Every structure is written in C-alpha cells, then in structure tokens.
Amino acid sequence: MYCNDCGEKLTLMFKQDEGLVPFCKNCNEYRFPRFATAVSMVVTNRAKDKILLAKHNGKEDFILFAGYIKKGETAEKAVTREFKEETRLDTVKFKYMGSRYHEPKNILMLNFLVMAENGEPVPDPNELAEVKWFTFEEAEKAIKKDSTAETFLKNAFAEIKKL
Which of 59, 66, 98, 123 is most buried, most CB within 10 Å of its CB? Predict the structure, then answer.
C-alpha cells in the first residue's frame, strides 16, 4: 500500500481505538484504506416470482445487476440509473438489503432488492450479452456459487418470502 498524497510506502502502526492502520511516515498521517462503492441489485418482476439476471460480454456466469456509484451520487440514484442504463426498464420500487465487502475488486457492495417495471428488458450491448428472467430455483442454480451475488440472492429470497 502506498500513500495517495505522496506515494510513500505505508507501514502499519497502532492507533488508539483503531488497531493497526496504514501510516505514511513522510506525511506523518494515518491513511485509512480507500475503496470503491457500488450498488448490487436483486431484481424481481411485479409478481415477485421471477428474478432478472445478466451475463456480461465475454463471461459465462449470470450475475446480479451492479454498478459503481458516481461522485456526488446517492446509492439510491445509482440503483435507478444503472438498472435503466443496462436494461431500459424503470424501477417501480426498491429496498436496501445490506452490504458486503467484495475483496477481489476492492469494492463495498450495497445491495438492494428492486422491483422492475413490467416489460421486456433490452440489454446494453456495450456491457451485456444476455438478460434473462429466471424462477427462484433457476436463479439459484445459475448464479455463481460461494459468491457475493449468491449471498445477496439468498437474502433477497428470504425477504421476498416474508412479503
């Protein structure tokens, strides 16, 4: 890890009430880790009996919809913007479900359960190879096992069953 201000290699130093924190000896400052923040969406139809999944260009696995939160944008705005950009469908409503740090990409994922407007999705050809509605059972089989997406999907199923 390196300092974002001066480029100096950081060392771990103990900070009261924080534990070991990266420290820049050149700037004489603690440098808490920075990471990107994104939204992840488990998308249902109005009947709440189907899940919409996407397959990115050049990838094999179906995944949840997701996108980075832009500077100055709220997570809620990112949900509606990203989903519309990727499918041309509007969101009817959404609910925040929880978060999870996704280490492989150094991202904090904020997950939402989203109800989509009825209609056929049109995948953004610059990003998506395919967009498809699945039953709950099919979605669970299609999503990558032991992934952040699988965790979010299972949490959404539990929430939908309560509704």
Answer: 66
The span from the CA of 100 to the CA of 147, in Å, is: 11
Same structural domain, 41 and 118: yes
CATH of the domain at 22: 2.20.70
CB-hemisphere CA count at 13 Å for 158? 7
> Which pLDDT belongs to residue 98?
97
Q: How many alpha carbons fall within 13 Å on the CB side of residue 77?
A: 6
Q: What 3-state class would DSSP assign to 50?
A: coil
Q: How far apart are the first and last CA of the chain?
A: 45
Read off the amino acid at residue 85: E
Q: Per-residue pLDDT tens for 71-126?
A: 999 999 999 999 999 999 999 999 999 999 988 888 999 999 999 998 899 999 99
Predicted confidence (pLDDT) at residue 136 exceeds the cutoff of 90 = yes
Phi, psi of 15 (to 5 degrees): -125, 130
Secondary element (H or E) of residue 153: helix 148-162
> Rounded to whole angstroms, how far apart are CA atoms 130 and 124?
9
Q: Count the domains in the chain.
A: 2
Beta bridge partners of 110: 39, 99
Same domain, 45 and 24: no
